[in-house]
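U., I forgot to send this yesterday:
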Amino acid sequence: MRLLVVLTLLSTALWSVAATEKPNILWITSEDNGISWVSCYGGTNAKTPAIDQLASEGFRYTHCFDNAAVCAPTRSCWITGMYGISNGTQPMRSRNRIPHDRIKYYPDLLRKAGYHTSNPGKTDYNIGGRDDKACWDHKKGELYGWRMRKPGQPFFTVVNIGDSHESRAHGKVEGTRNDPAKMKLFSYHPDLPVIRKNYAKYADAVEQMDSKVKKTLDALKADGLYEDTIIIYNSDHGGVMARSKRFVYSSGIHCPLVVRIPEKYKHLYPADKPGMTVDRIVSFVDMPKTWLSLAGAEIPDTFQGTVFFGKGMEPEPKYHLAFRERADERLDHVRVIRGKRFSYHKNYMPFAPAGQHLAYLWKAPATPAWEKHHREGKTDEVTGRFFRPRVSEEFYDNKKDFDNVHNLIEKKEHQEKIAELKKALRKKQLELFDSGLLPERMRERRAAQNNLTIYEMVRDKKLYPLEAYLDAADLALARDKGNLDSFAKRLSDKDEGMRWWAIVGLHLLDEDAAPAIGALESALKDESHEVRIMAAWTLVKLGKPDSAMACLDELLFQGTHCKEMLHNALDWMHEPAFPLVKKYIEQGKTRKGRYGIGIFGRIAELNGW
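Result:
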């Protein structure tokens, strides 16, 4: 009995020693604020003394980027260590399933390595088939989850601070602590009083967030853990004024990242000494792999990021990849690849303006004020571009043009860099099995028909010939009338994905698509409703509305398997679609969306119905 007690005590002591060798990790995340709102990054609108102090004691990363520009797809990347486009979780609030037996969540692996894990705040992983909270030891209640661990047990704690969330920019904008007159506006926003006031309101929110950072650090100090804990602070994406959050321009994806490493773990420093900056490219997908490396935990080969500091640090990646697809009720499809300075943007749905009405985004007073200013004809080339259809490709010098308002895609001096980035983007899309080369509902149908998750479906070349889709998309986006015959021929392809890119190609040719009117009219009967919708819109643009509107009427009132695309397309069509929308509303159909007025409700509002 005495021997058993001795062995038990020895085992406990050894476990405690081993545990102390593992660093505690505190990950503080704030919502929706890009680097422009943090003063140690040069932001002037808000003061963030707590984050600034943390940076002076730690390391400030200058090139940290989100992959998704909006919360749920971002958190999908974080929890799995995988790009959302690689497993089909990139559309907002999609909750698509993944094969959980193959794709592990990083907290599960930390727990296996002996860590106590806690996240009583935001999860929102956008993944079906598993409860978001199931992977955490401590799920609710005590905010500072390290207090819930066993004595001596190493911890990994997430503290998510929502005080800088987009919702804090909603509502009245009067009586702010910050002076609207002192706000520095992004160059794409017109200088209007309400916009300045909205900036000031959000600056107040960011400062409140910073005070919560201080409170969290004070709690860690009070518990005697400050010098035993690696502290990471970053925002969950950029934001928050319109054209930042949800959009893969710099203001939407360039995020603050500060890491403080105690003296006892100085062998993990990413630079010579605290207070220094680190210019390494860090993508959000790198973070969970890095946390596992710091903890000495197992890292499965599904993790697609790069360890960016610590003993297991890996070579710096040359590029960062970002993506945008459906956000709430609004469709879009963009890919961006960038280095530290230059970024290449590919718009796979250029017919959809970036600034299409989105109910939640319009709750901030600055957004409708900006739109009204544009509708009154008062915007210029820079301030009005948000509301216009886009070009197929964009290229920016982010050092000279952080706001991404000067598209250099046609400049001769940049063609070599553009070619390099285009090649790198395609290589990365193939490496990740980019699931976005089929419209959202089309890929869901194909996966379901084969009893597969999207993750599994896109890894089957017979079901998802990605190289062919990338080639077809490039052909469509080129807007070259020399491809017209090829597009018309591909409208008979047995693969609805190829037919989709053919119809997009014809649509983008505008009046040059007129010789294909016969093929377009045949496409109104396509099995794919996505193809029918685009064919109808294209025919309307070509002055052949009769059969086209009849097709849209049938889909609207008799049902469709891609309702979101239909509603979006009817809005993109503008006046020719208004009679259909009015008829729909007069029949008592809903005008509301998830966050308030929906697409059709908005059309009704603008037309006084």
